[in-house]
Amino acid sequence: MTAKIISGTETAKAIREELKAEIAELKEKHGIVPGLVTILVGSDSASQVYVGAKERTCKALEMYSERYDLPADTSEEEVLALVEKCNKDDKINGILVQLPLPKHINEHKVLYAIDPNKDVDGFHPVNIGKMMLGEDCFLPCTPHGMLELLERNNIETSGAECVVIGRSNIVGKPIANLMLQKRPAGNATVTICHTRTKDMDFHTKRADILIAAVGVPNLIKADQIKEGVVILDVGVNRIGKTEDGKAILAGDVDFESVKQKAGAITPVPGGVGPMTITMLMKNTVQAAKTAAGLL
């Protein structure tokens, strides 16, 4: 048996086509152009690549986009003032402060300063609280994208044993909560594993759905899973470079061995990764519609 490949690239492409039509309708019927601002402090190369990808996606979807590239020595007060300026700008529906921030800036203080109605990353405590309660809110983009992958690929989750490896605030905790909820791509029985879990193999071998989000390359091997498991691999680990300098990436799952045993699996790259920016755009469109009283 060879696993079905769950393509985030193809799913993200389909969602972006839906968003294009939605944005065009907003412009034509209501004169609304969803707007996203990105704030980058410092010159972290990975962050620059990610922010650049967001800009290009906004342009492709014909959304309004602003970008602030601030020097690494920008004060916390200056960043907070910029966030407040964007909070008050009606052209801006979504505010994204790229993490990590320099050490002298309190990330929590900056993220909490974002208007929850413009928190399209889904990290504000108001949105996290609403998510925990199952209320309408902006869902964190990577977990949101994972739900879309499960639902659009007709993966049955109701009653499934779902094992999440990793407990980060960005992926592990939110996806575990969402998989528990009474919702499409939900109603699962969820176990969270982490660095202090005893006998992790006991849990992974029981999983009908396995979500790996720890940032350790090729951690999960074929002998740790059961036949037919559905695997969402969130890991993006740089394990080397090609001769022309391109990064060689590996997931948290040993793809080559596991794909012979799993029922379905996301590849790295091209799996969960492409969904994150797409869901950011979806959240921004949602924010624009909410601000206009259309939701």
Write structural notes for this entry.
- By secondary structure, the chain is an alpha/beta fold.
- The chain has helices spanning 8-30, 45-60, 76-88, 107-113, 125-133, 141-152, 172-180, 200-204, 255-258, 273-291, and strands spanning 4-5, 35-41, 64-70, 94-97, 161-165, 189-193, 209-212, 230-233, 237-241, 247-250, 264-265.
- The strands form 3 sheets. A 6-stranded parallel sheet has the order 1-11-8-7-5-6.
- It is 40% helix and 17% strand.
- It contains 10 helices and 11 strands.
Quaternary structure: single chain
Total domain modules: 2
Tell me the distance between the termini: 45 Å
Instruction: Name the CATH homologous superfamily of the largest domain.
Output: NAD(P)-binding Rossmann-like Domain
List the main descriptive attributes of the protein structure presented here.
Rossmann fold, 295 residues, 11 strands, 2 domains, 10 helices
List the helices and strands and how they pair.
Elements: E1 4-5, H1 8-30, E2 35-41, H2 45-60, E3 64-70, H3 76-88, E4 94-97, H4 107-113, H5 125-133, H6 141-152, E5 161-165, H7 172-180, E6 189-193, H8 200-204, E7 209-212, E8 230-233, E9 237-241, E10 247-250, H9 255-258, E11 264-265, H10 273-291
Parallel strand pairs: 1-11, 2-3, 2-4, 5-6, 5-7, 7-8, 8-11
Antiparallel strand pairs: 9-10
Give me a quick take on this structure.
40% of the residues lie in helices and 17% in strands. With 295 residues, it is α/β, with parallel strands linked by helices. The model has no long low-confidence stretch (mean pLDDT 95).
